[in-house]
Every structure is written in structure tokens, then in C-alpha cells.
Design a protein that fits this description.
Length: 188
């Protein structure tokens, strides 16, 4: 536990250093240049094109999340392992209307405890993400393609973010588990 705390402090200090020196653009360029060495062929397969929100944002083949219980294992999502912090994260695009069921399948298979959404559903008049969770009015959403039912158990709205507790039920096996969904109202 002590090692994890030290790693978190180190990450915070590194973030502050980059931020205070205005080095984000340089760092982004360095990472982008390194990424040319990695392939992302699976994302470009014809059968996967309609599962990508943007043509130029694709998961690398070596780190992409692979869906297990479906005919096509592709989802636009990457597994990021932070060894120093002893944590793993999944970075994914905002689900499209035709990939919401795949998103919940990934949440189920990866046993994801929390989803942090950093964008809004609509930004500057464009859809950035499909409405993949139930609203307070509808309370439930069913995804027939992957056989999941998502139920809104609670919702707590603050000035800059909303926390929801969602229950995900696999209709095929009847099992359920809860995941926390936090969506922010951030200005980027």
C-alpha cells in the first residue's frame, strides 16, 4: 500500500511539473511520434470501421481490449497498465449507438468497477457519445445484441459531475453486478 501511495504522489508531481512548464503539447507530439511504431490493423478491418467513432483514433493491436463472448472481438478500447501504481485502466471512445452493447459486454468481462466519462454526450452541437446508460426517467436500458440490461439504481448530481450507480445484468446467465458511472461537466 505504501508503494502505491508513493507512486501516486510521484504521478501527481510529474503532472504538476508538465502542467507548470506548459509541456503538454511537446509530450503529446513525442507520444504521437512513438505511436507510429505500433500497428492498429484490426481497427481498420472493413467489419470494424463502423465501430470506430473517428478514423484517426484506433487502439494498437498489442494493447486493445478483446471481447470474449461475441463473434467479433473488436471494440475501440485500449488496456493501459500502470505498473508503478499497480493499476490498470481501459481507455475507450465514447460508445456509438451501434456499440453500446459491446461497451457493456466489455465492462462485464473486464469486471469494471467504475466508468469515468470525461466528455458530454453532445459537445458544440456534435454527438461525442451515445446515451449508453439509462436516464432517471427510463431507469432501464436493454441491449439485445449482447443480452445486457442496465438499471439505474441511484443518481447524485453535483455542480461539476454526476455519480450514478448502475446495475449490469447479463440476461443469459442472470448474474448482476454494480458499477459506478461518473460523468463530468468539464470544459476542454
Amino acid at each position: 500500500m505504501e508503494q502505491t501511495g508513493a507512486a501516486t504522489v510521484k504521478m501527481d508531481q510529474e503532472f504538476e511539473d508538465i502542467d507548470s512548464k506548459g509541456r503538454w503539447q511537446k509530450l503529446y507530439s513525442e507520444i504521437r511520434n512513438q505511436s507510429h511504431e505500433c500497428s492498429y490493423k484490426v481497427a481498420k478491418y472493413p467489419e470494424n470501421r463502423n465501430r470506430n467513432r473517428y478514423r484517426d483514433v484506433s487502439p494498437f493491436d498489442h494493447s486493445r481490449v478483446r471481447l470474449e463472448n461475441t463473434e467479433n472481438d473488436y471494440i475501440n478500447a485500449s488496456l493501459v497498465v500502470m505498473e508503478d501504481a499497480q493499476r490498470s485502466y481501459i481507455l475507450t471512445q465514447g460508445p456509438l449507438r451501434n456499440t453500446c452493447g459491446h461497451f457493456w459486454l466489455m465492462i462485464w468481462e473486464q469486471k469494471t468497477k467504475a466508468v469515468i466519462m470525461l466528455n458530454r454526450v453532445i459537445e458544440k452541437g456534435s454527438e461525442k457519445c451515445a446515451q449508453y446508460w439509462p436516464t432517471a426517467e427510463e431507469r432501464e436500458m436493454a441491449f439485445r445484441d449482447t443480452r445486457f440490461l442496465v438499471t439505474l439504481l441511484s443518481e447524485d448530481t453535483k455542480s461539476y459531475y454526476t455519480t450514478r450507480v448502475l446495475q449490469l445484468q447479463n440476461i443469459n446467465v442472470g448474474c448482476r453486478f454494480c458499477s459506478t458511472h461518473i460523468s463530468g461537466r468539464f470544459a476542454f
